[in-house]
């Protein structure tokens, strides 16, 4: 099994558990240059809030590339604010099979500090 298939398998298992719990899901996706975060409804049918390093407001706060820890923290702050505006306070964190360190960890901690509970 290659690296990508293993990551997707871990993600599928995590999403199955979150779906059974029927809670909003904060999903993170990363590429070498950018990081993306979305909050989904409990059944996964709609995106309720989203933020990424491609957003104009986030790009203005980030120096250089969007593929670093400081950019991930800014995205975490933005997704927390947008989720609270949508009336969401509790989410389940879906790291999409990525290890919980670096950019993924920075995004999660920033979202927690700005009002999301998970």
Characterize the structure shown.
- With 118 residues, the chain is α+β, with helices and mostly antiparallel strands.
- It has one domain (3-113): Nucleotidyltransferase, domain 5, CATH 3.30.420.
- 45% of the residues lie in helices and 18% in strands.
- The protein has four helices and four strands; from the N terminus they run αβββααβα.
- The chain has helices at 3-21, 56-61, 69-85, 103-113; strands at residues 25-30, 35-40, 47-52, 92-94.
- The chain has a four-stranded mixed β-sheet.
- β2 (35-40) and β3 (47-52) form a beta hairpin.
- α3 packs parallel to α4.
- It is globular and about 40 Å long.
- The model has no long low-confidence stretch (mean pLDDT 95).
Low-pLDDT sequence parts: none
- Give the strand order of the largest sheet, numbering strands 1, 2, ... along the chain: 3-2-1-4
Just name the CATH architecture. 2-Layer Sandwich
CATH level-3 fold name: Nucleotidyltransferase, domain 5
Strand-residue proportion = 15-25%
DSSP E strands, number: 4
Q: Helix/strand-derived class? A: alpha+beta
Domain module count:
1
